[in-house]
């Protein structure tokens, strides 16, 4: 123990000498110790004593974080053991050839969001960093790719600068895999033909948001190519002929037209699985797209024609996105989708369809047709696509007579169906395997008894914003729906809570109706209720029976408000309603600890250990 104390004393003496030397301005390299950095002298025994630069954070011997420190120069006392150095979000303008001499082991250097220019970097600035793998120079003032970059680089980020051209000699004989050049000023004239020839290992190149009018020369080894947000108007023949390893190609938000894509435009792209051509000026689905593409984005164009020839070669496509175009039913050639044998997701929403396209592929699973003008579902629409799991026809013009009898029963794999925002007057009959039905914002005034009886697996039913009345919901309409967990009947014309609710229901929405009373036996047969919404009804404190909620062991939240009346109603003094008259919390309960505290002090105001608060006639809170 005595020897240990002696060692600690010597160590502290060394630290104090080093601190004194540092304070006197004596040069001690990049390994200067600070007494304030050592809280436990035993922890540094046998380890190198390092200094953390002012205004920086050093979580370990290898990491130095000087980001957002308002630095104008690189600190001189960076440890030699540093491998990760963050200098981003500072005011650096110049980096000399000696600023990294003392820390040559840096592998990741972050210089983003500074004020570095071409004049502020020398050819030897990064020469001491013999093991540099990742260099981030985004958001500076560079006008060209820096010279003298280490050939050990794997990632080079030059995004958000003012680079107009790339010198062919700056990117040679490097091991780069990821090159980020987006958000610059590059044009076709600034990228020469052989500029990427020396990058044999490059996998990802981002050239988006530049000033290209055509496809520039690309590295032959690239797998991910980003060319979106440019001004590309056409793709020359053979533009991708040397990029045979490409798997993802992004060309969205350009100015591509039908004439700008020729038969040989995509020649050579033999491995492309993802292609994005959205937000262009196409009026038809292009012919001669890469045959192995699996996900094809064509949304937000001006497409009005979908031909069988254009799609027949895309036998591996799985996702086809054609939403927000000008497609009409007459613009889709009969059988255009029939040969897409692997297609399982088709988006055609926000077009001008009046019918469901014919001869859909057998393996289709998700069909999205919302925001069209569809007014009819024919009996043969799903003859070839009976495996659909999700059908979305929201905000069309469907009526009950417009749905052919038995047209939907063919979809025996259907689990989720959304017919919201149409003109239905009654709940349609859906296949028995359906679990989720959304029918909001229709004109529904009744639920036929047989409609729900044929869906025994139903778990979620949404009927809000319709015209349902008490007479429109038969007494035993939910008898066959024992699995129903969520029932949304908000924004209708109900004056009472429906009887014979499903016994297993957990979430019940009855908000914005005309319900006048909650009787003691209202929820007697629904013991698993967790959430009940009753706000914006015609409820009064004396018409809500507190006993209706006493047996609900799983109750987590109740929302209740009532519409103020023009005439004042005076409660009898000392009545139960007067005693319990309080503001109603619109989230009941919320903070568990607070609720328990209140329940202990006022047990009479609690249900099952939860705080109960009742409406106050003088003030009404808007429920969010």
Helix and strand arrangement:
Blueprint: H1 2-23, E1 63-65, E2 84-86, E3 108-110, E4 134-136, E5 155-157, E6 178-180, E7 204-206, E8 224-226, E9 248-250, E10 274-276, E11 295-297, H2 308-312, E12 319-321, E13 345-347, E14 366-368, E15 390-392, E16 416-418, E17 436-438, H3 449-453, E18 460-462, E19 486-488, E20 507-509, E21 531-533, E22 557-559, H4 576-579, H5 592-601, E23 606-607, E24 610-611
Parallel strand pairs: 1-2, 2-3, 3-4, 4-5, 5-6, 6-7, 7-8, 8-9, 9-10, 10-11, 11-12, 12-13, 13-14, 14-15, 15-16, 16-17, 17-18, 18-19, 19-20, 20-21, 21-22
Antiparallel strand pairs: 23-24
Write a structural description.
The protein has 5 helices and 24 strands. With 624 residues, the protein is low in regular secondary structure. Among the domains are: 8-44, no CATH class; 304-395, Ribonuclease Inhibitor (Leucine-rich repeat, LRR (right-handed beta-alpha superhelix), Alpha-Beta Horseshoe). The strands form 2 sheets. The chain has a 22-stranded parallel beta sheet, with no helix packed on it. It has a two-stranded antiparallel ribbon with strand order 23-24. The longest helix has 22 residues, at 2-23. The radius of gyration is 35 Å and the shape is flat. The relative contact order is 0.03.
